[in-house]
Structure formats: structure tokens, C-alpha cells
Amino acid sequence: MLNPIEGEIFYIDKPLKWTSFEVVKKVRARLRKRLDIKSLRVGHAGTLDPLATGVLTICTGRATKRIEELQAGVKEYIAHIRLGETTPSFDLETQVDATYPWQHITRELVEKTLQDQFTGKIEQVPPAFSACKIDGKPAYKLARKGKEVEIRAKTLVIDEIELLECGLPQEPTIVIRVVCSKGTYIRALARDIGEALDSGAHLTALRRTRIGDIRVEQCESVDQMLERLENEEMVSPDRAEQERLEREREANRARARQLKAEREARQRAKRSRQSQL
Q1: Model pTM?
Q2: How far apart are CA 149 and CA 73, in angstroms?
Q3: Which of these is catalytic: 49, 91, 198, 223?
């Protein structure tokens, strides 16, 4: 039985072109209708760009307090990168703005560069087309207006990086697997890999395959999730409130028992000291 008010955590395979917030809105709307309530806290732990797919963690009710904890989990991505071309957003959100030679790049050079320069602690400047705040405003809003955006580099950790596929020398394409820390922008990683190869690069596809111990194979589609929320039995708001009050009362009783035990222990220790005088 689901208890969305007390808190549930759902894992969804986010579809292409959906924003993370659109998934949140769909889940919130279905739960509000099903529970017949006007408001319910629903949030996501770790944004996925519209052009990315894969694991998206959705929290409801009091489980939203765990969002920061869940965001901290190690993440795994499969990234498709095209070499020799750059875009302002470092992915397909914007058009190609420059081209670079790529014929000098070999599979061996790619593998050496990935291991030598992109394993362990690295410094990364987040994309201008990102939610990073500049004077309180999301950077992407300034970037889309053509304004200059300057973002400080951040220290990140790349636990693993692996070349899965290589189209070279016929095609300037590579596919990599990345295991990394919170806050890593794979779009920016594509940019940096292109520069390290004395060329340019941008992301053409991205899939988040894991967050912590949750793999994408364990996730539901949006349609599967909405159908489950429509049909699965749920704890009513009144019952959820009764259960919460009972837990609070039990916690208060346990705390009172603990304080009584501590007080009695102090009294025994006091009597023991007095008897030794």
C-alpha cells in the first residue's frame, strides 16, 4: 500500500524531451486527484536535461526531506559524443557554431586521454546553459538572451570512464561510460574531451543508467508509474495523519522513558557516592 503523504520514493525512466519538472508535475497531479487533496510535496533528486533519458528519482511527502541525500549518490551515464564540432550548449539544444579538425584523433589517443586527464579529481566549468545561479538567476536564462556568463570551475570526481564504442577513423563519434560524483555535467565533459583532443566536441545523446544502487532496468516508464498511481491501494490522508500522530506519541513516550531512566541512573550514582563518604 502506497503512502504518498508520509513519503514514497519512485524511480522513473525519464523519456526524451521531457524536463525533470514535467515528470514531477505529472506525478503530483495524479496523486492530488487520487487522494482528493489540494497540495502535496513532490520533488526530484537530480535534474536530467530534456535531451537526456534514464534514472530520475521522484520523492513525495516527507520523503522530499531525503532529496539532498539521494542526490549525493554516485551516478553512471552512457554518453554519445561527436568530435570536430561544438555547440553553445555543448549538446543538440543549440546549432553547431564551429568545426575543428578531427582526422588526427585515433582510438588509442581517445583512450589515453580519457584515462590520463579525466579520471579521479578534475576541475570542470559548468555550461552556461545550466541551472547554476549567476547573481541569483539561472545561467541558462542569461545565456539564452545572449548575455556573457562566467561560472567558476568546480572540483568533481570521475570514478570510472570507459570508451565503449569508437567510430574513428570513419566517423568522428565515440560512446563513453562515465561513473561520477554529484554535480558533474556530462555536456561539459564532452566539451573538455574535445579540447583535450585538440578538436571540439558536443553531446548527441545521454542516458543516466544508475543512481547509487538503482539501475535504469529497475525503473518504470512515466505511463507505468501513472497507471500504478491510479490503481494501487493508497493510505488516505486521514489515516496518514492518524498514523503520523501515533508515531509522534510513541516517540514522545520513548523519549519520556529514556529521560526517566537517565534520571534514575543519576540518582543511583548520587546515592552510591553518598554511601562511600
Answers
A1: 0.84
A2: 29
A3: 49
